[in-house]
């Protein structure tokens, strides 16, 4: 008989006392066993985040692991259960469909790699997000070539299709730039710390400042059902390519070096010293962009309208449709006497007040059979169905 994997919100029965560990049920502490280790989540005095402790049953010692990834903002876990033998599925107490499903990775490839690098016990949070991620578009090219101009055109014409990945940077804002719109302007120390915590998909030192794409910046766009556009330098594009992230990589060239210089100066946003630095870097970037094999398409931005047309063609937008990628909710019909416990990788979630064994309008099936992704980004590829009683 298949393992009973039902999860019942407000059902205290699943919070068994694990091998003699006393759990604080009043603060919704949960425990999950994998091999010799018992992962205890929640129950700290610090109400701002869920605490994580590991009890090593082989030597009966407690371990405080290094916790990577973006943590849930809520601090009370309601239920926890091991899935895929490498991560703990955690349902948070307040049932908000967009923010209640989290995964604490304890033995995934990412966690194993980080354990080796950091030489310590590591766990990593990954937020559960519904739907698949539409393929991102990475746009690179030397400073002043017109990347930002082309991206603005795309966002203007296709506001429901595209969302811009707002990077972090340590450079100072220009007069027209707004925090959270053009960049997240940040201090070097804070950005360095966030990089150490695994919060960045890529980062690079560009023209003397640090720039980086946070995982959150990309996921926020995907969560809105939009296709993410990244405006990043060649080093950043290379590092994303190396991570095998599925994306379209486009490199923009100027028609000539003097024209690049003219555009950069005409923009009037840089000091003479900065212009010189950006032009020096442009020579190397142009070489790398053309020859690195990173880019799927290389476009020349001579006449803006022509280059924009060509960009749209490469992105399959010749038809001019502006469509967001939302998926419609599904409804599962289940016989009440079988429920979901006979099917592996599916979980039945009752909202507060429902009785065990009785599906109702308040019941949901969480289907984790095709999980994708994970820390340090979101975990995708699952579905939530409303359950209709078919008896
Ligand atoms: N095809 C074009 N012909 C003439 N001017 C252009 C063209 N494309 C863009 N520009 C102008 O060139 C300047 C630089 O463009 P933009 O700021 O978009 O460059 P960028 O590649 O995003 O630079 P950076 O990497 O520094 O952010 C802007 O003033 C823009 O209006
Ligand atoms: N590797 C990354 N490069 C980035 C990112 N965001 C922007 N950039 C690149 O920096 C230069 C300079 O930008 P500017 O706004 O100061 O003119 C430009 O080439 C951008 O493509 C990032 O997150 N990562």
From TrEMBL:
InterPro entries: Gal_Oxase/kelch_b-propeller, GK/Ca_channel_bsu, Guanylate_kin-like_dom, Guanylate_kinase, Guanylate_kinase_CS, Kelch-typ_b-propeller, Kelch_2, P-loop_NTPase. It comes from the Eukaryota. It catalyses: GMP + ATP = GDP + ADP. It is an enzyme of class 2 (transferase). GO terms for cellular component: cytosol. Residues 134-316 form the Guanylate kinase-like domain. Its EC number is 2.7.4.8. Keywords: ATP-binding, Kinase, Nucleotide-binding, Transferase. One of its GO terms (molecular function) is ATP binding. NCBIfam families: guanyl_kin. Belongs to the guanylate kinase family. This is Guanylate kinase 1.
